[in-house]
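Input record (one chain):
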Amino acid sequence: MDLALAEATRAEFAHSTVYLNTATCGILPRSAVAAVRDLAEAAGAGLPAGFGDFDRANRVRAAFARLVGVDPGRVAVGSSVATHVGLVAASLPAGAEVLCPEGDFASVINPFVVRGDLKVRFVPLDAVAGAVGPSTALVSLSAVQSADGRVADLAGIRTAAAEHGARMLVDATQAAGWLPFDASPYAYTVTAGYKWLLGGRGASYLTVSEEAQDTLTPLHAGWVAAESMWDATYGPMPGLARGARRFDESPAFLAYHAAEASLALLERVGIEAVHAHDTALAARYRAGLARLGHEPVPGASAIVSVPGLAARQPALQAAGIATAARGGTLRASFHLYTTEADVDRLLDALDG
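The corresponding structure, as predicted from the sequence alone:
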């Protein structure tokens, strides 16, 4: 383990389980737990500090922007990926074609499907680039598949989309935080903050390119979407915020107070170091699975899924090893608080 990562891990994590389930939910660092506790205690005491801090939410916006390589003016903060995707879905004209991979996460698909007047087309993940055509308005997909960890060929899909004038919406929920991810080439990206970004539910991020900002209507605009928030608390707002902040939801402060500490930790360690650590552990697990005669879904992801082993998940959980069962597979996911000993304990349990 990288020395800086090891020191951060010792200082920041206090879990008692073998935790291999970040793809479901990340572990809150101690500093994030402290931030949540401070806010909750202030709220319980009726102190002004318990109201929550908009400046902190804006610092989180800036930290996320640095993480994914865009200007903070391209980032909107919210509470869920589905809400962000719904905003994009509402912007499309009736009859527009949306291309999606088969079996992608529901939040990246359903907002388009439930409209009923869009043409939503599904193809295998490895066929997406070849399926983009002149009638495709939008390609919507996850950078990393939640169910099995497959990593999309974003560069190839982006080339195909550009050739046909299609926009892209990329869900980075299972990528940002362990996989170096650049949001700048895409019209829209969405990211939940409670998995690899180590925050709590209630923090999510929408990036919108400058060219695409006029394509969206801020349908859920409240006072926080105004250029001058404190002049827009009553009545129609004088004017929308410049940039993507016009698409903000009012922040869930407990989640955003946690997110500031969590993103600061990831910045201190560095995503390149986290990526090297996580993928090395995944490779160790893959090698061990091969020795045991199991064949995982191919790839080099920090998420490793093994078909046919989903039934082992309850017994593993009872033994203090946190994994997930998804689509008939046993899914393990490795992050900065995972050790080689954790990987070996999982392999030993599967061998037994």
